[in-house]
Amino acid sequence: MTGIDPRRLPEQEVEAAPEDNSPGKERRESEQRFARLSRARYSLSRLFFNFYLLAMGSFVGIAMIADFAISTALQGITDDYAKRFMRGTIVLIEDELQRYPRHQWEKQIKALDEKFAYRLVLEDLDQVLLPPKQREKLELGDIAIDSHRDIMFHRIRGGDKVLVVGPLSPDLNPEYQRAIPLELRIRLMTWTAIGLGFAVLVWIWIRPIWRDLESLRQTARALGEGRFETRAPAARSNLFALLADTLNGMAERVQKLIAAQRELSSAISHELRTPIARLRFALEMAADTDCRDERQRHWKTMEEDLEELDNLIDSSLTHARFERERPTLNLTSIALVPWLEEEVDDLRILAGQLAVEVDLGHLPPNLMARLDRKSMPYAVRNLLRNAFKYAKTRVRVSAEVQEGQVQIHVEDDGIGVPADERERIFDAFTRLDRSRDRTSGGYGLGLAIVRQVMEAHGGHASAGESSLGGARFTLSWPG
C-alpha cells in the first residue's frame, strides 16, 4: 500500500550483461537503482483506492457480521412479537371458518384472502414442512413460524387442516413484489450514501498525507543527489510532522559533517604541504652533501618533520572522532586535586625553563568531581601545551568551584589573545597570524578538541585575559 506507481519506473534491461563482481559494477548498479527510484513518485489515485478499498471493505465486513449477530440474537424476540401481533387475526379467521361446514372452508378462505394484504391458504397437516421444534408447536395447536419465509402456521381445531398465513412481508409476497425488494433498495441507497460520504472523507484525509509523502520523497531524492541544503517543507499532516523534523535534523547534521570533513581535508592538505616540502628539501640536501655533520643535521630536520606529520595526523583523527559523534562518556567521581596535580606533573617536562605554578588552595581538599577519565585529559593537556608554547616565563594552573560549576584555569604570561579572537580561536584550524612559526604555530586543532570535550561534558571552554599578562583559558563543567 505504498502508492508508488510502478508504471513510472523504466523497464528492466532485456539482455543481461556479463557477470561482473567488481566494485565499479556495484557502484553503477547502485546509481542506476537510485536513478530509477528517483524518477518514481507516489500516485494519489493508487494511494486513495488502496486505502479506501481496505477501509471500506473492512467496514462493510464488520457491519455485515454485526448485522448477522444482532439479527440472530433478536430472532426469538422478533418471532414472539410477530406471533402475539398476529394471534388475534388468526383466531378470528379460525372462528370464521368454524361457522361453515368443513367442505366450504376452501371457498371461505379464498373469500377472506381477497380482503388481506397477505396470502391465506389451507394445507393438509402432512404437507407442511417445518423444523422439529416448530412442528411440535403446530401439532399442539400453537402458532408455528417459518422465519426465513415469514409465514405463520396454525392448525384448525377439529381437523388436519392448517391455516397458512403469509408471507407477511410485502417484499416476499408475490402480489406486492417489485423488481427490487424494498429492503434491498433501502440497503443499496444507505450503503451508497455511506460509501460516497466515506470516500469524500478519505480523500480529504489522504490528500495532505500524499502531499507530505511526495514532499519527503523529493527531499530524500535531493539529499541522495548531494544537495544537503535541501529541507522538507512543513508537514500538512501531524502524522508526518515528526518525520519531517527528523529528516531535516538529519540533513542538517549530514551537511555539517560533510562541511567539517571538507574543511578538515582542505586544512590537512594545506598543513601537509609545508612539512612535506621541508622533507623533500632536506632529503635533496642530504643527498648532495658529503659532510657527515651536515647529513646528520638534515636527518634530524626530517625526523622533526615526520614527528610533526605524526602529530598532525593524530590531532586530526582525534578532532574528526569528536566531530563525527559525541563520545559516550563514562563519568566517574574522582578526587579533583590529586588528579589535576598528576596531569600537570605528566606534562611538566614539556615546560622546559618555564616556571609552572599549581594553585589549588581555593578547592576543598576532598572535592569529588564527575568527569570522563579518558577524554578530559585531552582538554587539560591541550591547554597546558598551548600555554607552554606561548608563555615567556610563567604558567599558572588553578581551580575553583562557582555556582555548582567546577572551573580549571590555565594562564600564561605570553602574547595573549585579542578580545575579538577569543571565540573564533576554538574553531578548527584557526590560528592567529602572529603564531605562524614552526616552534609555536601548531595546527589549530588543540583548542577545537578542548571545546568538543567540554561540550560532551555539558560544559564549555572560554578564553580571556590573564593577570600574568597573557591568555587565560577556562574549563567549566557541572561537578
TrEMBL record:
UniProt subcellular location: Cell membrane
Transmembrane segments: 51-77, 188-206
Membrane topology classification: Multi-pass membrane protein
Keyword Transmembrane helix: yes
Stretches of the chain forming a coiled coil according to its record: none
Transferase among keywords: yes
Entry keywords, A to Z: ATP-binding, Cell membrane, Kinase, Membrane, Nucleotide-binding, Phosphoprotein, Transferase, Transmembrane, Transmembrane helix
Pfam families: HAMP, HATPase_c, HisKA
Catalytic activities: ATP + protein L-histidine = ADP + protein N-phospho-L-histidine
Comp. bias intervals (Basic and acidic residues): 1-11
Domain spans labelled Histidine kinase: 267-479
Superkingdom of origin organism: Bacteria
Protein name, UniProt field: histidine kinase
Organism for this UniProt entry: Azospira oryzae
